[in-house]
Structure formats: structure tokens, C-alpha cells
Amino acid sequence: MTLLLALVGAAVALLIGWTFGRAGRPLVLDTGAAPTASPVGFTDLVEDHPTGVIVSDARGVIVYRNAVSRALQGTHVGVLLDEAVERHLVGARDGVASDETIELYGPPKTVVVVEARPLPDGGAVAFLEDVSDRRRLDQVRTDFVANISHELKTPIGALSVLAETLVDEHDPDTVQRIVGRMLGEAERATRTIDDLMELSRIEMDGEREVESVRVSDLVAGAVDRVTEMAAQADIRISTLDPVDGVGPRSESLVVEGHRRQLVSALGNLVENAVKYSEPGGSVQIRVRAADRYVEIMVADQGVGIPQRDLNRVFERFYRVDRARSRATGGTGLGLSIVRHVATNHRGEVLVSSVEGEGSTFTFRLPLPDPAAPHGTANDDTEGVA
Q1: 3-class DSSP string for 300-330
Q2: Residue 316, pLDDT above cutoff 50
Q3: Could you tell me which of 323, 347, 317 has the C-alpha nearest to residue 335?
Q4: CB-side exposure of 348: number of CA atoms within 13 Å?
Q5: Which has the closest alpha carbon to 345: 368, 329, 312, 373?
Q6: Is the pLDDT at 205 greater than 70, yes or no?
Q7: What contacts 155, CB < 8 A, 6 or more positions away?
């Protein structure tokens, strides 16, 4: 970034020096107008650059703003930045380069780096760079490393303790019990790694096999994944699939996409419904078509989700009830996978819930355009894996 700012500063300095050196007069420009074309060739570079550029002459008069900085004038953010810009320009006109990171808490939260540099003619140039997205990305990365470290440290630590216990243990029943717990912790770590790899594949968009998939096949594949789990937990899974003139509705509904990803996403929804249902409860899968979309709804009669958490349940590693999630063996990645698969297929996932009564997740996917040639419904969508 330092090199980039230096290049932009040099460009501004050369442009100003060339224009007013030829005229033989002080530098005075209309602050609201874009610069005129120059043989130097730097005008477009400065004007269109995503970094805001503000130039003052040696007398402290603002003589130029590029498009980005002009767009800030009169805005809430622009007004708050003006004081910092003026302060740094004063120092730069005295020959002192400076920079400052300013955090504006919004909403939305905005982080702007203000830098000022002296110009050869005694003036100064200030740069405004919005680094909000970069800061958010850095925070996501930091949170991810902390979360995955915690998720893997717990089972690995348990394995270490259990292994130490096993060293001096000779009772067969105790050994068998410890080995069983070790296998459980190893499976827990494996599930976390598998979910991370699955999420990585989806986010990297590494699979682009698009095919026509019957909705009934997606439902069957998702149910197959959790049949044994549901039986052990005494949870009944039922499918509400209305029959129309040609048979069950899901038999006639077809979507375009990656079969494995879609089964994985829907399977995660059904698995979550089973995990958070009480023994003897039921999970219902409903299928319907509406407004050129197919909606697959997974409803449970479980513990439900507090309203304050509804907007966060699709975040990586976010758990409404960490203690219960530990008991059910969740990694906190399942719903994040669902959201990414839905987005990749031009769809969405919605949730509604009442604490103590249950939750309903709705997985919406676009139906193919009947006018489009077979297999090309999603060809214009880069996000479909």
C-alpha cells in the first residue's frame, strides 16, 4: 500500500507541477470539478483510483479532490473525516508525513486510513483508504483460527488424557470403556475436519458438475443419511409430499445443480432437526413449488431457537447452546454449509422458530426455466458448483 500511495502522490505532484508550471501562476482549481486531461497521462489514474485523494496548495487551499473523495463530501463519514484530513494536511505542508487509522462505529462500522504526504511545491496530498472490508476479513480469519483451534483441541486433549489413563489400566471392562471414549473423540475430530473440507470445497467452487436432480432423490438421500441416528434417538421422520395428477409432487419437480452438495445441505438440515428433537418426537419434510421456486421445509418439534440467535445460526461455529451442541456432537459448521450451497445454486435458506416448540428451515431452489435448453438453466451462474 505504501508503494501505491507513493505512486499516486507522484502522479498528483507531476500533474500539478506540469499544469501550473506552464501557466506560471499559483495553483488554484475549482474544488468541485474533475481535473482536465493532461499529456502527463496520470489524470485518469488518480481520478478513478479507489483511494480518495485530496490535494492542498502551499496556502492550505484544497485545490483538488478525486471522484472518491468528492463522493464523501456532505456525507456523515465525510464530515467526520474532514477534521482529520485537515490536521494531517497541515503537518504535511510543514514537511511531515503522517498517517492515522480512524474507526467510525456506524452502523455500519467503517475503518478509514488517512495518510498525508508533502508535495514538492510546498503543498500536500492526503489519501483516504476504506479498509473496512479488509478489517472484517481479518476478524473472520482470526475468529476462524480461534474456533477451529478450540474445536480440535478439545477432542485431541481428551484423547491424550484417555491414552495416559489407559497406559496403567489392566481391568478389561475399564479398558474397553476408555477405548470407546477414545473412538468417540477421534470421530468428533474427524467430523470437524470433514465438515471443514466440505465447506472449503463449496466456498472455493471447485466442483462444477451441474445436472438435473429430482427433488424426491434429494429428500431420499438426506433421509438415508440420518435414518440410523433417528432410530437410535426414537425420532420419527415423515414426508409430506402431496400427490398431483402425475404422482408425488417431488417426483415431478427437478432442479439444476450439484447432486452431492444439495444432498449434503438438505441432510444437514434433517440431521440438525433430529439432534435437537426430544426422544419420541418427529421431524417432518414438506415439499412445495411456489413462484418458480421449489421449497423443501424441514420442521421439528424440538427446543427451538431464541429470536436473538436467528440471524447468527448460519455463521461458522456459532452455537445457540454450546453445552447441548457438545452433547449432540455438532461441529457448528452444518448450517454454514447449507447457506453456501443455497447461495451457490441461486437459492436461499430461511428459518423460523419458537423456543420450546420447534424450528422450521426452508431450503429454496430455483426451478429450471422451461424455455431454456436442457442442462443450461444455470450456465450463466458462476456460483453453481
Answers
A1: ECCCCCCHHHCCCCCCCCCCCCHHHHHHHCC
A2: yes
A3: 317
A4: 3
A5: 368
A6: no
A7: 185, 186, 188, 189, 192
